[in-house]
Fold:
Amino acid sequence: MKRDIYKQILLWKKLPNRKPLLIRGARQVGKTYTIQHFGEEEFEHLFYLNFDENPELKQFFQKSIDPEKIVRDLGYYFEKEILPSKHMLFFDEIQECPEALNSLKYFCEKAREYHVVGAGSLLGVKLANTKGFPVGKVDFLEMHPLHFLEFLEALGKVRLKELLEKNIDSETIAEPIHSELIMLLKFYLIVGGMPEAVAQFASNQNDLEAVRKIQKNILDAYSLDFAKHAPHNQIMKITTIWNSILSQLSKENKKFVFSEINKNARSREYEEAMQWLEDAGLILKTHRISTPKLPVDAYKEPNAYKLFLLDVGLLSTMAHLPPKVILEGSRLFMEFKDALTENFVAEELAYLFDKRLFYWTSGAQAEVDFILPIEMELYPLEVKSGESKRKNSLLIYKEKYSPKRLIRTSPMMYHQHDSFLNIPLYALHNLRKLHNSEAYGI
Structure:
């Protein structure tokens, strides 16, 4: 299964002065498979160390974390000399061996000629709680579930993926192609981007119940992680937040409200639990901004945000939506369609903008679903799950701030008129080209 992050790891490999690489991401997003595949394809040999499956490997880091000694001893263990330019070291489940994690500092300072990659489940949580971790001594990459274009490629729809990767306008996509992409998008709302679920769907697109079974197992595994890895005094709070995401997204105003968890709940009481879920990569947080100005991070309100799930397929499973409800567009789906669509958009934007997600409101008068910081501009983006052409919030925003472009994403085809642009939901990846796209007349 091809992943876009492969190209980023390849760029890291070619850096003349590269540091050790740590790849973060939620459990089961495909970190191990992708890194192993990369090591096997791009090097003569991959040395794979899994500290969870083989705890005895930790002993190589107990007495000394000097890179040359580690490399020498591992060469004896694997019966093969480790050569800097030809071989790669992969420390999997590295959070289970703090000494291995700390050794990356010394690989950076003393042995950059070696290609060293680390990854692991809940690595983000571990790093957030590791005092003295050598900041600046490693390179980081974030791995997400498959986004929609990766999903298309996994299904063998390579030509459609190539089409959507171009800068295209309304005349490029014919109606039959548009209809097919909308149907594939509906399947994505069911399947999502967790690799195991996508692989199952790709092998048998008629067996969506098998996909649901995989997704339920993933959700169960996440719940077990709360009990196994979270601080004991935070487990209940983490579980409470996790279980409330569905109901909070079902509201028209999706701002996360703690009083709906418990009428006496206060945000500060749940800060640690919320941070744990964010560090684990299980939620996406979209911050409300008071004023759309640059730098946008300076204007975000710390206690006003929306929460989305890391994967829309898991959200539809959590909601117990039968696949046919989404495919046939029944009443039950219509009631939850806005939540699924906005979660999908949040995922796509999290990939494009490195999880920097913002939205804007003007009291009860207007709300713009996302504010996009692209280059030195801020663009308002409104999300529509249906064919509605109303854009009241965008017009109010325009009146206040005169943005360069007003953008809506919806199931409708490309449409541009003056400063207004409608982008089909399936083509959100073109947003990163917005600032210099001649196709959009900017």
